[in-house]
Amino acid sequence: MKPIFPLFILLQVLSFFANAQSKLIATSNYHHDSTGFFLHDSTTNFYKGTNSTSAVQEYSDGFVTWAADSTLYYNKNAGNFNLYAKDVNTYNANYSLRIQYLGNLYNNLGVNTHTYQFDYYYNGIQLDSSIGIYTDVIANNTYKYYNTFYHYNGLNQMDTTWIIYFNNVGVYTSSIKQVNTYSGNNITEVLEYHSQDSLTYNPDSKTNYYYNANNTTDSVVAFQWIAPNWHKVAKNEFTYNGNNHKIRKEYFSFNNANQTYSKVARDQYTRINAEIDTAYSQLWNQGTASYDTTVKSGYKYQGGLLLRSYGFNKNANNLWQPNPYNGIRNYYYDVVPNNIHETNLLKTEIVLFHNPVEHQLTIMKECSGAKYAISTVEGRYVQSGLVDSKNQVAVGTLAEGVYVIYIEDGNTISHASFIKL
How far, in Å, CA of 331 to CA of 24, rounded? Predict the structure, then answer.
């Protein structure tokens, strides 16, 4: 038997490299109770070979966006880990425009019960219209439940949107018209009208946006229409650091009787460069005339990508404890950058079955006798050996989570990610 160490040596070297087009391949969300952390739900993202879109870190709020071709969602129900939703996206050739979204919902028996289909139509690169189609799979009832139309001004800015709603037999029920006003490239007002007959549109609400000298949103004021006047409802104010990154968001309610704002809450962010290090959510305590910090979140990054967020709240003794919901949220990528180098060596991928997996992971290619290594997405190696005669690898002893398996077959090293249930 050949020693397996050369594979590990190569993998250790490759762990220093990075792929600038890192894709988000999975997330996992851990809740917390008296027994500790437990996996509550997870997602797995799948990408076609032509899909080169990469994960994008949203530095303003601390989350990750992506454009996967399909996504599977799992959660635990009555002790079982079940598929409860599936998204399928269709894009144009260069993945700059989404053409269709198809959402599927499943019951605890794995039966597809409902689907939501959104078709998008474009005039060049501008969104022209969209249609929403709902299907009750069990009742075998399909109907169009909304239709949206978009209009643009002479500067190609979306200035008017119409959303028309239908009931479950395709009859018109109501509609919304949204009118946007701009100053240069900045949106300054969003005015919303409602209609019950598609002919008469009555004002319902509006939002005004104000900007600072750096052309960044300074405040947002919300109004409600109570005929015959507009009434202020609330306001958000934003504070930025010297690098124009948001460090505070404040929430105010408005008292129309005395025409004054009242503090409600605020979010505060401490940052390392652009990245959020810690976020604090605080409620205004009228009795003490001060803010009470009730929730905080911590964030861990590598190479500019968010790897993990931690949630905490105050218990009855005013001490921090893991948040019962969203205690830990993990983000997993096909390659995690570390700002040292880049390589394209690990481009060869393999197909796995089942995935997610409980006991036996099957590699969908002939590779019996090949060397394999399994690592966490952070790069910690947890298992190695040889693929058995059925092209399978036993993973039953691994803890729940997302892993990467590497297969050394001849002069090729292939890899794929999988979720262990």
Answer: 7
Beta bridge pairs of residue 41: 29, 75
Q: What is the mean pLDDT of the chain?
A: 87
Whether 31 contacts 327, CB under 8 Å: yes
Evaluated on CA atoms 420, 402, 377, 308, the torsion sign reads negative
CATH number at residue 387: 2.60.40.3080
Measured in whole angstroms, how far is the alpha carbon of residue 52 from the centre of its chain?
A: 18
Question: Domain end: 347, 372, 402, which one?
Answer: 347
Of 44 and 377, the structure prediction assigns the larger pLDDT to 44
Write down the pTM of the prediction: 0.74
Of the candidates 307, 330, 347, which is a domain's last residue?
Answer: 347
> Using CA atoms, how far apart are residues 203 and 229, in angstroms rounded to an integer?
10
Q: Are residues 140 and 282 in the same domain?
A: yes
Which CATH number does the domain housing residue 103 bear?
2.40.128.720
Joined together, the tokens standing for residue 359 give: 């006991």
| Strand partners for 142 | 135
**What DSSP letter does each residue of 261-325 carry, written as one string?**
EEEEEEEEEEEETTEEEEEEEEEEETTTTEEEEEEEEEEEEETTEEEEEEEEEE-TTS-EEE-SS
User: For residue range 40-95, what is the model confidence (pLDDT) as tens digits?
Assistant: 999 999 999 899 999 988 888 888 989 999 999 999 877 778 899 999 999 999 99
Our count of domains for the chain comes to 2
The answer, yes or no, to whether residue 368 has pLDDT greater than 60, is yes
392: containing domain: 1-19+348-421
